[in-house]
Amino acid sequence: MSMPSRTSTLTALTVAALAAGTVLTAPAVGAAPKAAAPKFLSASQLPPHATSSWTAGPATDGFPEELGLCVSTEGVSAYDYRHREFRTDLDTSAVQLTVVTGTAAQAKALAKHYDDLIRTCADRIEESSPDVEAEGRDYGKLPVEEGARVRGLHTETSWGATDIALLSVGRDGRTVTVVKWGQMGDFGNAPVSAFKKTTTTAVTKLY
Fold first, then answer.
1. Using CB atoms within 10 A of its CB, is residue 59 exposed (0-12), middle (13-18) or buried (19+)?
2. How many contiguous H segments (helices) and E segments (strands) does the chain have?
3. How far from 15 is each of 18, 23, 129, 173, CA to CA, in Å?
4. In angstroms, rounded to a whole number, what is the distance separating the alpha carbons of residues 151 and 19?
5. How many CB atoms lie within 10 A of CB 27?
6. Residues 6+ apart with CB under 8 A from 130
7. pLDDT in tens, 112-152
8. Which of 67, 105, 137, 185 is in the most buried spot, having the most CB atoms within 10 Å?
């Protein structure tokens, strides 16, 4: 039986995902002071694909839809969001988000908020989508700048579509970055060690 594409599956799950509650409060002063924009990963810094090279899109303002399954802007102040998308010729894709907040304390709270959303994502998916089984895994912390954490998420639908994603949240000062890698498959297909290296590079490269 043919299997739905990873994109269509995640799109359907994103629409069905429950909204997270408001947990952060930031001053109503407005955007953070202007400073050097954080840098993004390059295509060569993504986990290597066995049969296809990565292509990087441009750095773009705004919050990426690709993170909407687990992470969103719900309950979060209007910070400076930018993102960059990555593709292969096959079913594997990735995205990096950078968020510049006003202070290191705000960034610390935001990083925890995002990590909490990723940690609870599997439960929220199952609650909102009875025909989807989801499992999350914690791959631990990384000692880079103010810290980073890597987690995995596997989803399988009742019609047989199975997807695996690796997500990480890291922080450098008042800037937070979220990286997501995903493709069709399960935990056995997840390049955890390579993704940890990618996450370390992403946080180190911000400034």
1. middle
2. 4, 8
3. 9, 21, 10, 33
4. 20
5. 9
6. none
7. 999 999 999 999 999 999 999 999 999 999 999 999 999 99
8. 67
